[in-house]
Amino acid sequence: MAYSALYRTFRPLTFREMVGQENITKTIKNQIISGRIGHAYLLSGGRGTGKTTTAKILARAMNCLNLKDGEPCNECEICKGILSGSLTDVVEMDAASNNSVEDIRAIRDEVNFLPTLAKYRVYIIDEVHMLSTGAFNALLKTLEEPPEHVKFILATTEPQKLPATILSRCQRFDFKRISVEDIIKRLKIVCEESKIEITEEALRLVANLSEGAMRDALSILERCMQDGDNQISIEKIRELVGIPEITYIHKLLRYIVQSNIEGVIESTQEVLKEGKDIHNFLWEMIKYTKDILIYKTTGKLEIYNKKELEGICELAEKIEKEQLIKIIYELSELDNSIKWEEQKQVMFEVGLIKTCVNREENSEDLVKRVEKLEDKMKNTSFIVQTKTEEKQENRQNT
Ligand SMILES: [Zn+2]
Questions:
Q1: What is the DSSP annotation of 325-346?
Q2: What is the pTM of this model?
Q3: Residue 155 maps to which CATH number?
Q4: Residue 132 shares a structural domain with residue 217
Q5: What string of DSSP letters covers 179-243?
Q6: Structural domain that includes position 215
Q7: I want to staple 118 with a disulfide (CB 3.0 to 4.6 A). Which of 63, 192, 311, 376 is the partner?
């Protein structure tokens, strides 16, 4: 099965079928019913929120011969022609690959011709922020005085990159991320129609992992089915998307919070012994710490099971939000600083010990213990030595 099969199969064909963007679809439908169609639309928002889907439905609704309550019929000659891509009056263009002045000039020359069959010539330009400056200027000329029979639908994930002159000539609609509940609703329909057996818990996990993007939700489902088995459980999803064994991460973070240096050393070595990728591991630790922060702030988290949640709850009670934020920064700095180090493993270990010490900033005792440890490591690597020297220099300077 192709990667995007589910997404294509279940792309909504009417505004009614779309989820999570009711305000936008209602406004557009009303414009179509009353015949007040704008000459240029800008659809902006994150990936997978329905911009392209809306653009396609809108292009058909503008031209449908048998409009039903602002919705395209999807059965008339025009709708069918647009759906199959055979009607040349509706042009879809991806600005990521067609971003030159020539591409836009071609449109400028074309717009003077009347549409062949449809009422309007419609240009859908996806990822419009990718156009070159020259192309924007060419587009602007067309947008300034478009012929009556031409409509533009521009879509972008990054509206802030568009020139103000373009923005001011478009009717703008901002697509929001789709809520977990709305994604679940849609996934249920998709699963039913595709005969996918999925538990309620698993559906919720997929919806949470997709972070408001329907396309991502469907692609997770699809990846789960690639083994030919239509049954999807929470375990299968976790394995597939690589939610790591959080036991290690939890243990290490608990030692850091408790300022237990021996514990940190012991679990860091366990991690290294397992041959885990250090950057991945640090990234997972950052995410886990962030999740504890979210739990502390909102009181809920969806992607963990009951036992994991108990662990998170326990840590959340022991540490202040400010400290969690500091840990996130320290871990991300550590990740950056060891990127180019040859002795990654040693620096990883020292970095985590420092994060642990920083939890007890005033404790001289702890600083002494770290210095002793650093001295011990000094002989094993020149990098540690340099760092220790730096530290001594710093101390002399203060
Ligand atoms: Zn139609």
A1: HHHHHHHHHHHHHTTT-S-HHH
A2: 0.67
A3: 3.40.50.300
A4: no
A5: PHHHHHHHHHHHHHHTT-EE-HHHHHHHHHHTTT-HHHHHHHHHHHTTTS--EE-HHHHHHHHT-
A6: 193-241
A7: 63
Confidence of residue 232 (pLDDT cuts 50, 70, 90): very high
Return d(Cα 352, Cα 357) in angstroms, integer: 9
Q: How many domains does the chain have?
A: 3
Is it the case that residue 383 has pLDDT exceeding 50?
no
- Separation of CA 29 and ligand 1 centre (Å): 14
Q: What is the DSSP string of 24-68?
A: HHHHHHHHHHHT---SEEEEEESTTSSHHHHHHHHHHHHH-SS-B
Lowest mean pLDDT across 201-210, 366-375, 388-397: 388-397
Distance (angstroms) between ligand 1 centre and the Cα of 80 equals: 7
pLDDT at site 382: 45
pLDDT digits (tens, 9 = 90+) for 150-168: 999 999 999 999 999 999 9
* Contact in structure between 249 and 285 (CB atoms under 8 Å): yes
Q: How far is the CA of 82 from the centre of ligand 1 (A)?
A: 9
Gap from CA of 10 to ligand 1 centroid (Å)? 19
50's tokens? 């329905």
What is the enclosing helix (H) or strand (E) of 296? helix 278-298
What does the pLDDT look like over 71-98, one tens digit per residue?
Answer: 999 999 999 999 999 999 999 999 988 8
Q: How far is CA 345 from CA 109, 259, 265, 266, 381, in A?
A: 61, 21, 12, 14, 11
CA–centroid distance, 48 to ligand 1, in Å, is 25
- Please give the structure tokens belonging to residue 362: 């005033």
